[in-house]
Amino acid sequence: MIRVGLDIDDVLADFIGAYCKRYNLERPSTWEFDPLFGERYYELCQDIDFWLNLTPLCDPKKLSFTPVCYITARKCPREWTILWLLQNGFPNVPVYHSHLWGGSKSRVAKANKLDLFIDDCYDNYKEIKNSGIPCKLYTCSHNLQYDVGSDRIEKI
Ligand SMILES: [Mg+2]
């Protein structure tokens, strides 16, 4: 079995949909879309309801594999992430918040000997791929402009 790791926001959880709804914004076509993102993200990281109410983007029963771990750049408490995953029926495997690991997803991916990672963020995709770990870019409205050839996936 290949060892697959997953990002959470905009792969498993509709972060951007909830963010845009909360701040009355259009769904973005680029990640650099909100000049207030920093302040707003800080505010969200104090609000457990925001994180626990995110809509799942897929049915965990229909996942074609069991991930080895989740690696997210979230800065909210890690317990909230774990709670959301369990409440929504996702596999109970280790959750890493990469900012606690020097901000490097590839470092965590290597420590977990992953064969594949799936992320929607182009910068993370590049970082992980450049570290030698295969990575797929999960399609989202804010990453359609990147030509990653067969590394793009629409569904997990
Ligand atoms: Mg993401």
How would you characterize this protein structure?
The chain has a single domain (4-153), classed as HAD superfamily/HAD-like (Rossmann fold), CATH 3.40.50. It is of the alpha/beta class. The two termini are 16 Å apart. The protein has helices spanning 15-22, 37-44, 48-52, 78-87, 105-111, 122-130, and strands at residues 4-6, 69-72, 95-97, 116-119, 135-138, 152-153. The model has no long low-confidence stretch (mean pLDDT 97). Strands 3-2-1-4-5-6 form a six-stranded parallel sheet, with helices on both faces. The structure holds magnesium ion. Magnesium ion is lined by residues 7, 9-11, 119-121.
What's the CATH architecture name? 3-Layer(aba) Sandwich
Mean pLDDT, rounded to whole units?
A: 97
Gyration radius from CA atoms, angstroms: 15 Å
**Any idea of the CATH class?**
Alpha Beta
Heterogens: magnesium ion
Span between termini: 16 Å
CATH topology: Rossmann fold
User: Helical region count?
Assistant: 6
Could you spell the SSE succession in H and E letters? EHHHEHEHEHEE
Count of distinct structural domains: 1
Multimeric organization:
single chain
Biggest sheet: strand arrangement: 3-2-1-4-5-6
Number of DSSP strands? 6
Observed structural traits:
single chain, 156 residues, alpha/beta, Rossmann fold, 6-stranded parallel sheet, 13% strand, binds magnesium ion
Question: Would you kindly provide a brief summary of this structure?
Answer:
Helix content is 30%, strand content 13%.
